[in-house]
Amino acid sequence: MIHSTAIVDPSAQIDPSATIGAYAMIEGPVKLAANVVIGAHAHVIGDTTIGQGTKIGRAAIIGELPQDLSFDPATQSFTIIGENNVIREQATVHRGSKPGSATRIGDNNFIMANAHFAHDVQLGDRNVVANAALIAGHVHIGNNTFIGGGAVFHQFIRIGDYCVIQGNSGFGKDIPHYCAAQRINRLTGLNVIGLRRQGFNSADRALIKELFDLIFRSGRNLSQALAAARQREWPPHCEKFLRFIETPSKRGICPVRSGSEGESDE
Q1: Any idea where the domains of the chain sit in the sequence?
Q2: What is the pTM for the complete model shown?
Q3: Catalytic-residue membership of 15
Q4: Which of 139, 218, 244, 260 could serve as a FRET partner for 96 with CA atoms 20 to 30 Å apart?
Q5: Which residue out of 41, 116, 119, 140 is catalytically annotated?
Q6: Catalytic one among 43, 47, 53, 120?
Q7: For 56-92, what is each residue's pLDDT tens digit?
Q8: Separation of alpha carbons 30 and 143, rounded Å
Q9: 231 forms bridges with which residues in the sheet?
């Protein structure tokens, strides 16, 4: 299952059922689990673990050094890829930047061609990341989120669960659970179609909308809106939304914005 032109480091641990394509390179103590497929010309580097059933596309690079000018190449850090992911051609995933740190990709993600995951990114499960999306260092992304092609994300921000993010947009602030986002740091509402498709019933969606409107459309500032929201009990899916907003990254939370498409963004 290893092509005759592939180069495999003797320190690598390769399950017998794994497939390694033509001219692929496995460099360092890489671990490939059962039924992993490494495409032609792909390069898997360093202390990288790839879980069962994951497919790495042609010319993808997994486990490369961080693009961080202060990084010491002698640092022991990791790349951990879960199970049943599809990572398409020429995608890049860089390893952690601090001793013992790891860039992590969960399970059942679909990552399209030329997407980039910088050092220390944490991606959850069942996400779709479209072509040429650029995820900077230390970004945390939840589960069941769709990221459009060409979207770009500043380091250290958080993206929640069940979000939908427009392609060719840019974000330097957190995107809460369940939200739709577009352009530059703009929330446009809830991912209503996505929530319906993921099994949230009409009552669940109505409560999420009620809470969203209270936080973002009540005319209060954020701290006032959160205080008002805490005057009552909320079900778990709403509590999850509240906790996300109460514990932002240092970049803050994207606001809800309205106006014409010709309006300039800050």
Answers
A1: 7-138, 196-246
A2: 0.94
A3: no
A4: 244
A5: 119
A6: 120
A7: 999 999 999 999 999 999 999 999 999 999 999 999 9
A8: 26
A9: none
